[in-house]
Amino acid sequence: MTNPWKRLEQLLPNNPLLVGDVILHNGDGTSTITLPDGREIRVRGQSVAVGEKAFIQGGEIRSQAPNLTVVNITV
Asked: At the top level of its lineage, which domain of life is listed (predicted)?
């Protein structure tokens, strides 16, 4: 019989898709992003303008995100 926890872990994504606000373009081709929980992260890419929202996955900007209200729900 397989471990149920291991089976559940296999269903979860390794690189979740995040959304955040671009607050700064850095001189080395990276951007500083503020996540909805207040954390700041530095990611590769500058394809989204400062002040806009971006989708981030795997440590880099994937594309611009729509400027919608973010709601966090804890289950």
From this structure: Bacteria
